[in-house]
Amino acid sequence: MTFHPDVASGRAGLGEPLTLNSVTVRYGETTALDDLTLNVDAGEIVAIVGPSGSGKSTLLRSIAGLETIETGQILLGDRDLATVATHRRWVGLMFQDNALFPHLTVADNVAYGLVHGSSRLQPAGRRASGAVESRVAEMLGLVGLEDFGSRPVQGLSGGEAQRVALARALAPEPGLLMLDEPLGSLDRALREELTIELRSLLNELGQTAVHVTHDQGEAFAIADRVAVLIGGSLRRVGPPEKVWLEPGSVEVAQFLGHRNIWSVSVESGQDATILRWGHRTLGEVGPATKAGRYIAVVPEQSLTLARGRAAAIEVVVDRVAFTRQGFEVECHSEGDDDHARGAAGPRPVWFLAEERLHPGDRVGLSLDLNRLHLLQT
Amino acid sequence: MLARIQRGAGQTRRLRPRGSTVAGLVVLAYLALLAFWPLIAILHRSFRSVGLDRVAEILAKSSTWSVVGFTLWQATLSAVLTLLVGLPVAHVLSRYRFAGRGALRAFVVVPFVMPTLVVAAAVRAAFEMVSAAAPWWPELGQSSLWPVLCAHVFFNLAVVVRLVGGRWSALDRRLQDGAAVLGASPLSVWRTIVFPQLRSVIVGSFVLVFMFSFTSFGVIRVLGGLRMATLETEIYRYAIARQQFDVAAVLACLQLAVVGVLSFLTGRIQRVHTASSRRATADDLVPVDRLRRVLYLGLVVGIVAVLQAFPIAMLIERSLRVGDSHGLAHYRALGTRLDLLPTSSLQAVANSVGFALLAAAIAGVMALLALWALAGRGAARLGRLLEAVVFVPLGVSAVTLGFGYLVGFGSFDLRSAWWLLPLAHSVIGLPFVLSAMVPTFRSIEPSLREAAASLGAGRSRVVATVDWPLTRGSLTTGLGFAVAVSVGEFGASSFLARGDATFTAPLAIFRLLGTPGDAVRGQAMALSVVVGVVVGLIAYAIEVNRSDEVTLL
């Protein structure tokens, strides 16, 4: 099954820009969203990632008007949503576990917003039933479920149900589509397939979308920009590759899955500025970097087997696991001194190898300093 | 080999307890003798010994049909009123989070097991108070239907709050959020999402309230005066006062027919209900701002105060009023026997409690045996039969049952056969015990038993270490209900109680209420308070200790 974005051709440019200005939401004493500011361009897909309880769902529910914001401004296009009731905000929201209406058929679910709601394009409400019917057929075609209209929603598979939920959310042509962990309950293969399809469909429609997920991989795959939300505030916003390579803080780095987080120092020599990890010299960095102690975030991709080149570090292999990207190797550096040694023993070093190594192997690794990210301590 | 593999698929079958067939047969024999034989005896009486001509003659009488008509009419009114009052209360108590919600809910729900005679006494006290204060409003007087309706709402509010409220709080809020996001106004959301999901349970609770009001006996006899006649009171009148068993038997058959149809309907509705219910979590409750809290609380407290608290307060006031002042004289007098009672009021309470404990014990044993048989249901069709018949006594009115005992066990001398009373009460209590236990028992994951078995526990060890600890709490709940119901039981007792050994508290209240005189009336009120406190404490303990929502109804 695939989506058929061509059905919707000619509708590009549907989305409106979204602006959140200093939005704060509190539940009693706890602050769920703390002075949050975010701009989403028309047609842009922004993924919000964060650990559970970080306020991701609250953010979506606030935009939808299901939570009351304490302070701040929410603008969609040129409309200020703060005082608008949920049902007149004309945004789309796709829930985790789909929230399809169990007592309605697939077609009636998709038609719901068209029949019972007004929309941005038809603020006065009601459409002719023929128009509803053809729009429902169009939406079901868009998500590849042409013949499903008369079915009850109970019998649908997880993937089908989410496609119906997507069709339902898109049918009233919302200026903004919000997706709350929409693929969270699906199995991995289906999730990856749908992630790619969802991205191309949203791009084709020119749909502004805010996609919430706890899965960094899904966020990186679907989004134009990724926003990392931790403890109710945005900690990093940017294109996926930039957020990954330059997480900006240890917390974000750890949440994104960085495992090589080293305590390093920069020393200004006579001719060069040197980066040192314990007693080892990792290499030269630009003279602009001030001397001092830093935290280095080292992506696994920046470490490769030295193979005769000068090795930046020598390591002993501890564990090897095959992943689809290659062999994931966990090792510890040879001759660890106090700096490289954590409280619980030697700090592990992780990298990806193209060939299978074995525990106990001693190998040299070279380091791509350009992909290393230094954080001030 | 193939057969072997297929057997293996039903692995849990081997974990089912032994002896389940014997247990099932014991329960079936108990039900056959004590629940079905009395009904068969009534049927037999009305069609065999009486003859079809006589049946036709009774059915042709217009008075018969006016009784049927009035019974249906008051039951319909009661059900409509209860829904009108109950729906807002259910809405507030099940959807919003505010301080005092738990206590209010308990207060609304507890009256369901209050003895009918206590409620009738309270409602009468309240109406006497109101009509004394408002003499220009004669409709509130003795022969009006209002006291009866108020008493029925008093009991059955709990049905609506528990059934509808339970479903309401279990509604998936995301569906309503989803509809709102799609542009549906609050009214549309209610019409298209909320109501369709509540419809079956609203109809179900209507039918249940209708059925309870249809079979109402004590309330009608106390509050309906002499002229108000329903099927229940007429069965009693023909059987006891006029000794015309044939007419009573025909009326009882009519009664059974209506209740049978209604039970069938509720059975269907309840099946639908349980299929889609989901437990509500604290997160599903909507926190409310101050203004709404005041509004909602005001609404619920107002309804509860007028319909439930006011009658109880008046009952207590009347029990304390001695002449023009207040005191404990009526309570002190409970220990001494009045001439119009075969024992002292206090002795009647003791009798009631004793019978209730005995009845609950019998019902508890039968419930355990029934569960045992149901657990071993793979072995025989016996289990399915048991499942089909075990809840039937719930649909049979206590009056019909009592009359059935009179017809079916008429050869015993009721003066010496005191044990028929606790047996009848145990039949009435058994469905309460089972409906508390069966859902809990069913909810035990088979994997728990399999895990215990795989860890080396034998069949009886599995029962002792898994089934019993997990069902024990619900047995206590069920037994509590059985005791509460038996202490307040009036319908069957009216037929079976003879002499001082079987004279129970509800009978004493009835006789005291029916006798003029301030001292007697005061004692009736005091006795009602005592019985109400006993039952109320039991019910409150159950309500507070219950861990889940699926019991009783």
Descriptive overview:
The complex is a heterodimer of chains A (377) and B (553). Chain A is built from eight helices and 22 strands. Chain A has 377 residues and is an alpha+beta fold. Chain A folds into two domains: 247 residues, P-loop containing nucleotide triphosphate hydrolases (Rossmann fold); 119 residues, no CATH class. In chain A, helix 2 packs across helix 3, helix 2 packs parallel to helix 4 and helix 3 packs across helix 4. The N and C termini of chain A lie far apart (50 Å). Chain B is mostly helical and 553 residues long. Among the domains of chain B are: 197 residues, MetI-like (MetI-like fold); 180 residues, Orthogonal Bundle (MetI-like fold), CATH 1.10.3720.10. In chain B, the strands form two sheets. In chain B, strands 1-2 form a two-stranded parallel ribbon. In chain B, strands 3-4 form a two-stranded antiparallel ribbon. In chain B, a hairpin with a 2-residue loop joins strand 3 and strand 4. Chain B is globular and about 65 Å long. The N terminus and C terminus of chain B are likely disordered.
CATH topology of the domain at 62-230 and 289-316 in chain B: MetI-like fold
How far apart are the first and last residues' alpha carbons of chain A, in Å? 50 Å
CATH architecture of the largest domain in chain A: 3-Layer(aba) Sandwich
Query: Cα-atom Rg of chain B, whole angstroms?
Result: 25 Å
Instruction: Name the biggest interface.
Output: A-B, 28 and 20 residues
- What is the residue-averaged pLDDT of chain A? 86
Q: What structural class do the secondary elements of chain B suggest?
A: mainly alpha
Count of the separate structural domains of chain A: 2
Give start-end ranges of low-pLDDT stretches of chain A: 1-12
Measured as a percent range, the helix fraction of chain A is: 10-25%
Task: Output the CATH class name of the domain at 62-230 and 289-316 in chain B.
Answer: Mainly Alpha
Query: Looking at this structure, what is the CATH superfamily of the domain at 62-230 and 289-316 in chain B?
Result: MetI-like
User: What is the count of DSSP helices of chain B, taking H or I runs of 4+ residues?
Assistant: 24
Terminal CA distance of chain B reads 46 Å
In the CATH hierarchy, the third-tier topology of the largest domain in chain A is known as Rossmann fold
Global mean pLDDT of chain B: 82
Number of E-type strands of chain A: 22
CATH class of the largest domain in chain A: Alpha Beta
Order of helices and strands of chain A: EEEHEEEHHHEHEHEEHHEEEEEEEEEEEE
Strand order of the largest sheet of chain B: 1-2
Q: Largest sheet of chain A, order of strands side by side? A: 6-7-8-3-9-10
